[in-house]
From TrEMBL:
Identification of the protein by name: FERM1 protein
Primary location recorded for the protein, binned into one broad class: other
Origin superkingdom: Eukaryota
Record's keyword terms, sorted: Cell adhesion, Cell junction, Cell projection
Family: Belongs to the kindlin family.
Length: 677
């Protein structure tokens, strides 16, 4: 028999595996240790034994049998429970992960595999410049949702190459303290609230964010829709049971990635898990708004959420408007390069230098008071009594926010026949592309009502220039405004879209924007292409003046107004019931739904909830409401921890207020969602 002191001093051998990239260095080491050796001391002994000069600061021990990290370096081996049969791997905590974003783009970045998923998602959102990371989480696709895709890949002869955006060298993903960069919340807008693009190229000069430059546009702007053929190959839930499968793979926010079986270079989905979108601001949230728009768009296209035919046409019209606005933006961007932007800055600095030195600036500085003008022959149409119209050609000049017209060009130096002030007027397009009719209807407020004036243009280009000027003037802006050229391009793109209907009749393949890309497969089977085009254009009339960000925000608002919005479904068995039901979890309520008919049976609101808990032994969720209402259920389609976390997460999000800063109370989140497993 040996004494306890002799036992504590006993030395034994521990096999350690090192996860490194040096081919000429061994990976397994057998070290003599004692039970009172702390984890930090074990690291030091191992690094000395490896004898390779490199930065080991990101390395930690992973215990394979127990599926846990040994991160408390002051704990001894005895306190951790490590014995001679333990298999410890000395491995980096930050590893590469592939994330499929809501816009179906894949990014590769380094993520902490040792911190809780809640913290890892927060770090990911900093890299991607997404505020309010508490609304998102990581989802692992279930095997059922991948079956259709795998079957297609099996039959495919050519290997599928995925376009991946690499962000793995970003400071946050490398485990380093990050420069706030684009993510920092300041009083200066970091995005253009109209287009959603970065507010200025100069932002990239002061930021080490990996999203500087083109990468930001990949995440903040939507790109061409997939073809109907590709859409048909993707997983589309047909029943409530199918929809329940979509929510089965949410990762546990209170455990690390490695603890949940995620390995390096695995692919996960980054999705908005909680449907309470707090403080959406176009000046700061271009990426967040775009990813929300994309998640909503794909949910509708894949029929993950139901909507009526009229609602689907509205969604299609908003997508079409977004497409039109983006065409105008990209056509404008083609004429702008980084070099020209730098040249503009250098020119401004030169002008400033001349001014400060007191030199002659008359030939150097631009006259900033010179506002552009339009001058053209247009036809004026004034409605007369007895439904007769007087149509006559005049020489028109558009300056500031007013239109003046003269008998001819030669008399333009004198007094105009009439001067129309367009501030506050209503501008209505009067266009028939097929008939080559390009008219502008102006409803100008006067003392005794509205003065109705029609302008007729000769062609599309002339119409676009004058229509854009009228639209801006009605808002009190001139053609010197930076939005004038994008407005012109948007109108030209809109005319191109208006032309789709006539093209689709004769040659559907000639249409650039296929209407089938804007609606779910159900409606592409119901209607022909030209019928869909006509119906989408009809719904588009009311939203034809929206900007990029406005279109996306309107889409999100329309999505939020759907009856099924924000419902996450799970198959459960209620205590005392002999059949399975579906439980819908929303931001403010739980709904028991009949699995066969889809009809709601009972609704319980979170505001009436007194307490909830989980019996981890039998995996049963129990909830108590006001008036002695008590329910209990087991979850059949997913782990009960997911539903428990959903309830606690929504209650946590309800505590947010605009008075708070963006620092999250992580401890409160885990208290509400972690459970006592």
């Amino acid at each position: 028999m040996s004494s306890s002191s002799e036992y504590g001093a006993h030395t034994w051998e521990l096999l350690l595996t090192v996860d490194h990239q040096h081919e000429d260095v061994q990976k397994e080491f057998l070290l003599p240790v004692t039970g009172d050796l702390h984890i930090g001391g074990l690291m030091l002994k191992l690094v000395e034994k490896i004898n390779v000069s490199q930065d080991w600061s990101d390395y930690a021990f992973w215990w394979e049998q127990k599926k846990c990290w040994l991160l408390k370096t002051h704990w001894t081996l005895d306190k951790c429970g490590v014995q001679a049969d333990a298999k410890l791997v000395f491995t980096p905590q930050h590893k590469t992960l592939r994330l499929r974003l809501p816009n179906m783009k894949t990014v590769r970045l380094k993520v902490s595999f040792s911190t809780m998923v809640f913290r890892a998602v927060s770090d990911i959102c900093k890299i991607l410049n997404i505020r309010r990371p508490e609304e998102l989480s990581l989802l692992k696709q279930s095997g059922d949702t991948l079956k259709k895709k795998k079957k297609k890949d099996k039959n495919s002869k050519e290997p599928v190459t995925e376009d991946i955006l690499n962000l793995h060298n970003s400071p946050v993903s490398s485990g380093l303290p990050a420069n706030p960069g684009l993510y920092s919340k300041t009083m200066t807008p970091i995005y253009d609230p109209v287009s959603g693009s970065p507010a200025s190229s100069t932002i990239t000069w002061f930021s080490d964010s990996p999203l500087s430059g083109q990468n930001c546009s990949v995440l903040a702007l939507s790109y061409p829709n997939c073809s109907p053929e590709m859409l048909a190959e993707m997983y589309q839930p047909r029943t409530l049971a199918d929809k329940a499968k979509l929510n089965a793979g949410w990762l546990d926010s209170s455990r690390s990635l490695m603890e949940q079986g995620i390995i390096e270079d695995d692919q996960l989905l980054l999705r908005f898990k909680y449907y309470t979108f707090f403080d959406l601001n176009p000046k700061y949230d271009a990426v967040r708004i775009n990813q929300l728009y994309e998640q909503a768009r794909w949910a509708l296209l894949l029929e993950e959420i139901d909507c009526t035919e009229e609602e689907m046409l509205i969604f299609a019209a908003i997508q079409a408007q977004y497409h039109v606005s983006k065409l105008s933006l990209s056509s404008e961007a083609q004429d702008t390069t980084c070099e020209s932007e730098v040249d503009e800055v250098e020119a401004a600095l030169s002008n400033l230098e001349v001014t400060l030195e007191g030199g002659n600036t008359s030939n150097i500085l631009e006259d900033i008071t010179d506002i552009p003008k339009l001058a053209d022959n247009l036809r004026l149409v004034r409605p007369k009594k007895l439904a007769l119209k007087a149509i006559k050609s005049y020489w028109f000049i558009f300056r500031d926010t007013s239109i003046s017209y003269f008998k001819n060009q030669e008399s333009a130096q004198g007094e105009p026949i009439e001067k129309l002030n367009l501030k506050g007027c209503e501008v209505v397009p009067d266009v028939n592309v097929a008939a080559k009719k390009f008219g502008i209807k102006l409803l100008i407020p006067v003392a005794d009502g509205m003065n109705e004036v029609y302008l007729r243009c000769d062609n599309e280009d002339q119409y676009a220039r004058w229509m854009a000027a009228c639209v801006l003037a009605s808002k009190g802006r001139t053609m010197a405004d930076s939005s004038y050229q994008p407005e012109v391009q948007k109108i030209l793109s809109f005319l191109q879209m208006k032309n789709m209907s006539s093209q689709a009749t004769s040659d559907p393949d000639s249409v650039d924007m296929k209407p089938e890309c804007f609606v779910s497969p159900r409606y592409t089977k119901k209607y022909k292409s030209k019928q869909l085009t006509a119906r989408i254009l009809e719904a588009h009339q009311n939203i034809s003046q929206m900007s990029l960000v406005e279109a996306k925000l309107r889409f999100i608002q329309a999505w939020q107004s759907l009856p099924e919005f924000g419902l996450s479904y799970y198959i459960v068995r209620f205590k005392g019931s002999k059949k399975d039901d579906v439980l819908g979890v929303s931001y403010n309520r739980l709904i028991r739904i009949d699995m066969a008919t889809g009809d709601p049976i009972t609704t319980w609101r979170f505001s009436n909830m007194k307490q909830w808990n989980v019996n981890w032994e039998i995996r049963q969720v129990a909830i108590e409401f006001d008036q002695n209402v008590f329910i209990a259920f087991t979850c059949l389609s997913a782990d009960c921890k997911i539903i428990h976390e959903y309830i606690g997460g929504y209650i946590f999000l309800s505590t947010r207020s605009k008075d708070q800063n963006e620092t999250l109370d992580e401890e409160l989140f885990h208290k509400l969602t972690g459970g006592q497993e």
